Each structure stands twice: as structure tokens, then as C-alpha cells.
Amino acid sequence: MGRFDSALPDASSLSEFFSFAPVQTYRLSINKATMDRQQRKADLIQFLCTIQRPDFSIEDIDDSQSLIESGLIDSLAMLQIVSYLEETYNIDFRERGVDPGELSSISAILDLIEHPAA
Amino acid sequence: MAGEITVLLINLLIVNSKRQSLKGGADISLDLKVGNLTEPVSNRRWNCQEISRQVAGRIRRYQSEGMSACDRVFVHFGNRLEFFADLLAIWHLGGCVIPIDARLTAFEVEMLARATTPRFSIVDDTTDPSIVNQMSSANARVYNTLETEAHADHSSYRTLPASRIRMEDDALILFTSGSTGGPKGVVHTHRSLRARWEALRQNLGLEAYSRTLCVLPTHFGHGLICNCLFPWFSGKELFITPPFKPNLIMQLGSLIDKHKITSMSSVPPVWQLALKLSRPPSQRTLERVHCGSAPLPAYLWKEIQDWTGIRQVFNTYGITETGSWVAGTTIADFTPEDGLIGEPWGALIRILKTCDTATLPSPDAECKPGELGYVWINTPALMKNYFNRDDLTRQVVCQGWFVPGDIGFLDERGMLYLKGREREEINKGGVKIYPDDVDAVAKQFDRTTDVATFGFDDPLYGQDIGMAVSLMDNSNATIRGLYQWMKRRLAEHKMPVRWYLVDSIPRTSRGKINRISVSEKCTQLAPLDLRKILHASEDGPI
């Protein structure tokens, strides 16, 4: 881990470090909203496979592990995750803002999908 | 104490080629003094007094270790307070700073070290041990910047050696390509750097830069010379973050508000992220934004203006060889347009029908307003040369005129527009990647018969890297071998993300790779599923 990674506050302290835009609106497509978590997870993993570093194995990463710190994805791939969530689940990040911690792991992303206004 | 600090900073920064004191009639009109430094993420802050203490400690330490004038010094880290203290200390002792991209592999660093034979190598606690070993093997003396505290006491600054800066000496070498063989290092002298800062002061003023944010890496010209050193050496406060961290960019609006940022520079991908994920700043402190190193589409430009709430969003044209920012949109009234740059800053810009630098073109080679041609730039901030590569220098410099390989036109007002380039470089989010660098590594793999790297359009980065490769056999094992071979030798951002297996590489009649043809050929093919191949157990052909 590089110095700057270690120097960065974790997601919770980032919330204190920066003020976040208030959550205003969100939209959730009905089809996707009715999916169960397992299906959403399978879809998410399928997507992550398209943006991951090819020599890493997503099977080796547990749901709560950091996608970036584990080396699975490049930090810039977060933008691709955002695009995926916007297109698949109609989450409008420009409206709601985002905490980096909400995109940090598979379980965090699934929580975000299930509770986009949280 | 304050007087001593002032003396120190003047000694560090105000000297001329004849080593005259400032009072002794130096011919330098540019008054340089440093401002405070802050790391917003760690909340560390050095005021001028602490900066002086840190610099003095390093001067003492490096002098005691034998650093002397004209020594070349690798600095393997950036974007932290210590980087700037090291820069000033090395300069004070007459040395030349070579900032090294911390993402480079040991193989690439070895190539750069072979080309420049640095006597010293300054690392920090994040430097990979393989790099430290590599530098030791290259006979460079390696020092950790964090171990200078013992030298940074408050004993008299008067015990420091006199500044050894001479205006014509090499100050910076910035590598732009060739990290895998034949490194191309842009050499700037103290004079060329000061010419750049003076031009920027004259054309941009200083008021907008009182609290400047840098989210760009400090190992390349745009981030270092212009975003950081221009305001900082003008006494303005510099806020330095880790380079382009998405989780920071997501909070850009809050960061601007919290630290009352008045100016910043950027590359287009910063805005791809910020516009989508960060709320805009609300405190109205921001006065000016620069965006450069890659084309800025008009739609994105307007969105940045909307997000920031300011009109002064300058599309900024800069090349490392010209000390970066050499033109931009400082015209009084403008509407964002694709390709619009604006007016020169401390430079003459001409558009000519030729890019041949063998002789200075005749006046009739000049294009008419609106007519596309090659950009030629004349600026006192032009680099001295490419380090030990006069052959390459001659290809782009002719009697003080520099030909960057960009294609554009000047309109009736003399405003510069850029419409393309004739260079082969791949511009990945503002970071230039040279296909030859990637090709050189892939070619060295013993199962490679031919290879050609090319850029393809990417919605996030603007361009990303594709590679067509011809192998002796197309087995999974061979592809895996090539991947591992390249990964050990290339920085991650230079690794091709799309791989294509081809039987042959299209070449011109003169045997040169035709990268456009290669790219077109590959768009007809499906890229390899690298993930599948790298995890496959069987070694059969694809």
C-alpha cells in the first residue's frame, strides 16, 4: 500500500473530512428493484470481470474486501462502476453525491443498490 | 529569524549566472519567494519558516554526503511536502532534479539510470525496495528523505553553503518517453524555467493563484512547473494532494470549499469524475481553472464552467519541452469551442505548411489565417535539449523554434486552434504513452515475432492502449508468458488493455509500422479474453 493510500482517511472519517451533498432524489427501476441480492451480486461480479485486472481472480476476494486495495481493479475503474450503477439501476450520482466507501467493496455496492437514498 | 529565512530563500532562488548577489546587480527581474505548503489529506502544513528549516536540513545532509554542482539526482516520490524541500535543497547545491514516476518498474528505472547516471537517489517510505536495490546497483547513493530531521535543527542558516545555482545549469530533467530503451529526457535550465514563470505572471497575473490546488502528479511538466511551482514560487499557498485519486476527486467541491481554493489545474478525466460524483463548490472562492494535457471537448468545457460557477476555465496548451503552459484561453470574451486554445503566453506561435526542422522555413511557408498547418513555437522557456540526444533535439528544434507535432490554425484574431497531431503518442487521460516503449518490451519476449501498439478511443481516458501481436505460437502459456514478461517491465498505466493476435503487422513501404492500419485491422477482430487466458489451466492454442 502506498503512503497516500495509508494516509487517506477511511470512508467514515472521510465523511467528517468532507461535507457531502444532501441526498435528494433517486430512481430505481422496478425490474432491478425486485431482484434478490444474490442475482444482483451475480450481475455485479459479471460486470466487475469486464473491468478487473486480468491477472487477478475475483473469486479470491470476499464481499467485504476493498476492490481497489485487493488489487482487483484500478482506482479509476470506480468511474466505470458508477456508470454501471447509473445505467443498470438508474442511480443518479450527480443528484445524490457519493461517499467513496459506498463503492469500496461488493457488499458496499450491493447495499448502495438496495438503499440508494441511505 | 525572519530575516534569516528571507536570506535563505533568496539564496535558494535568486542567483544569476555570474553568482552575483541580489544586491550586486543581478539581472533577474523575477522575484521568487515560496509560499506555504499544505497537504489537505494528511492535514500537514509547512509555513515558510518550516520550509526553510526543512530545506536547510537537507542542504546540510546532502552536502555532507558529497552532493555537488551538476550532480543529477533521482527523486522517486512526489506530491508531498518533502518533495519540494528536496527540490530546493538539490538546486541550492547546484544539482539537477530528475523526478521519477513512482509507478515505473525497476526495469524502467534501470533504463533511465543508465541514460543519466545519477549520483544520488532520494526515496521515501513508499519507494519499492526493488527500486532502491536498482539504484544501489547503479552506484547511486540512496537516501530516504524522511531521515533528515537530525540535520534540520535551528542552527544558524548562515552556516549553509552559498547557493550554487547558475542560470544556465540543468535544473530539471523530465522524461517523456523511452523508459524501456533510449530515454528521452527534457532538460530545463534554471533560465528556461524562470522564463516560463515570468511569462505566466505577465499573462495570467497572480491574484487568482493565492490558494492553488494541485491534484496532478509532480513528475511531469504540467503538474510540477505550472500547477505547483509557478504559484508557489510567487509566494502563493500550494495545496498538494496525492495525484488523481478518485476518492479525492469525488470530494472536489468540498475540498475547494474547505481550503478556500482559488485556482487549480486539471486534465479532462478529473472532470469526467468530478462532474459526475462531486457536488459543486458553494463558497465561491474559486477564480480560475486550467485544463490541459489532453483535448478538452467544448461540451465538457461548458460543464466545467457550470460546475465551478466561473467563466475563467482556460483550455491550456502546454508541452514539457516549452516548460508546459504556452498558450490558453485568456481572451476577454470566448465561447468554448472544440479545439480552441487561445493566445500565446510568452511565446510566438506560427502555423507553417511544413514540419521539417532541417532549415528554418521561408516566409511563404506560413499558413493563412484559418489554414491548417504545423504548429511552430518560439519561447525563451524552450528546453535546453533532450538529454544526450542531440539527434532527437534536431528533429524538433530549429534555430530556437520548436515543432511539437501538433496541427492547427490561427484565426484572424491570432487565436490558436488545435485540430490534431502527427505524433504517435497515446494520450491516456493526459499521460502520454509512446507505442515504441511498449513495443520494445513486447519484442524482447522470445516468442514474439512482431508487435505494434496503438491507441483507441476510450470514453474515460480519451484514449487507451491496444496491442497487436504476432507470436510463434498462440498457446495460453505463451500469452501468459508475454503478459508476465511485460508486467514485470512496464508501469501499469502503459500495459495494453486490449490484445489482438495477428499473423502480421501492416507496414509502410519503408518498413515503418502503420499504426493507423493496425488499429483499423484490429477493430475487425475480437480482443483476447486475457482474464480467461491468464486463469486457464490448459495450454492449448486460442
Characterization of this structure:
The complex is a heterodimer of chains A (118) and B (542). By secondary structure, chain A is mainly α. Helix content of chain A is 48%, strand content 0%. Chain A is globular and about 35 Å long. Chain B is built from 16 helices and 27 strands. The longest helix of chain B is centred in the first third of the chain and has 17 residues, at 48-64. In chain B, strand 26 (462-471), helix 14 (476-489) and strand 27 form a beta-alpha-beta unit. Chain B is α/β, with parallel strands linked by helices and 542 residues long. In chain B, helix 10 packs across helix 11. The interface between A and B is large, with 29 and 43 residues.
Summarize the structure.
The complex is a heterodimer of chains A (118) and B (542). Chain A is mostly helical. Helix content of chain A is 48%, strand content 0%.
Features:
heterodimer; A: mainly alpha; B: 542 residues; alpha/beta; 15-stranded mixed sheet; four-stranded parallel sheet; 16 helices; 27 strands; globular
Strand share of the residues of chain A?
under 5%
How many DSSP E strands of chain B? 27
- How much helix, percentage-wise, in residues of chain B? 25-40%
End-to-end Cα distance of chain A: 30 Å
Helix-strand layout with pairing:
The complex is a heterodimer of chains A (118) and B (542).
Chain A: H1 3-7, H2 11-17, H3 30-33, H4 37-51, H5 77-89, H6 93-96, H7 106-114
Helix pairs in contact in A: 4-7
Chain B: H1 2-13, E1 37-39, E2 44-46, H2 48-64, E3 72-75, H3 81-92, E4 96-99, H4 106-116, E5 120-123, H5 129-137, E6 141-144, E7 170-177, E8 184-189, H6 190-204, E9 211-214, H7 221-232, E10 237-240, H8 246-249, H9 252-258, E11 263-266, H10 268-277, E12 288-292, H11 298-308, E13 313-319, E14 324-328, E15 340-344, E16 348-352, E17 373-378, E18 385-386, H12 390-396, E19 397-398, E20 401-402, E21 406-410, E22 416-421, E23 426-428, E24 431-433, H13 435-443, E25 448-458, E26 462-471, H14 476-489, E27 498-501, H15 515-523, H16 530-535
Parallel strand pairs in B: 1-10, 3-4, 3-5, 5-6, 9-10, 9-11, 11-12, 12-13, 26-27
Antiparallel strand pairs in B: 1-2, 7-8, 8-18, 13-14, 14-15, 15-22, 16-17, 17-20, 17-21, 19-20, 21-22, 23-24, 25-26
Helix pairs in contact in B: 1-2, 2-3, 4-5, 6-7, 10-11
